[in-house]
Structures are given as C-alpha cells and as structure tokens.
Amino acid sequence: MPKAIGVPAPISNTPSDQAFSTRHRPCPPVSERGRSVRRATAPISLFSKIAHRWSRDRQLSWKARGVLTWLNSHAPGFRVSEKTIVCAAPDGRDATRAAIRELESHGYLVRERERGRDGRLGGVNYILCEPWAPPPDPEET
Where are stretches of biased composition, namely Polar residues (predicted)? Predict the structure, then answer.
C-alpha cells in the first residue's frame, strides 16, 4: 500500500517521548483521510512556551491542561490565588478547584502556604513542576 501523503508522523519521535507515551493506551492510527495541524501565522509576541509532555499528558483532563497552560503563561512572580484562577476560567469554582487538585495529584503543581514571622498563615505560592523531575527545593523557589 502506498504511503499516504500529508499524514503526520507519530508524536513520539524521540526515545524519551516513546518511553513517556508507553504508559498510555495507544491512539488509533491516523487514516489516509486524516488531516494535519496547520497554523495561519505563527505568533510573534505575547506567547508562551510549554513542554509537549505537559500539553500531551493524557492522564490530565483538558480542563487541567488549560489551567496548567494559563498558569504557565504568566511570568514568575505573578501574584495568583485560587480566586484569580476561578475568575479567569469559564468554568465554575468547583470545576476549577478540581482541575487544580488534579494538577497537584499528578505532580504538575505544588502549593506552599507561607507563614509570617508571627506564625500566622500567609499567602500560597503556586509552583509549576515537571512530574518526572525531582521535587523543587524550597530554598530555590
């Protein structure tokens, strides 16, 4: 059978991606009628870089991937709270909280509560992590 023109190569092209993708159920092969992803124009400003593993991890729901992408789109030091995330999302409070918990349970997000010098609880730091990397050192965050 001739090779179909325009059928994209499998997503897992590198050994590390192949190792990562083996824990997921395989996707069905793309049919000869499959279409490829196209972009009209590439963004030249106001864009974010995100690891393919983050956006393609099939253990995460689309909602959790959206929250992860939104958090990643801000510069380090951006002041964020659960309320900020809820207000930025089209979903309700409970759905957004569930997505945040999902990111925590899969190791993409660590929330650390600060304590003031007087021992009172303070704000919460949102730390984005790579679940396959060692946990962050609190001294460096």
Answer: 11-21
The residue with tokens 């992590």 is: 129
pTM, two decimals, is: 0.66
d(CA 124, CA 81): 7
Instruction: Give the 3-state secondary structure of residue 124.
Output: strand
Instruction: For 69-82, write each residue's pLDDT tens digit.
Output: 999 999 888 899 99
Tokens of 139: 């001294």
36 class by beta-carbon count within 10 Å (0-12 exposed, 13-18 middle, 19+ buried): exposed
| 97 contacts: CB under 8 Å, gap ≥ 6 | 82, 86
Residue among 124, 4, 132 at smallest CA distance from 71: 124
> E strands along the chain, which residues?
109-115, 121-128
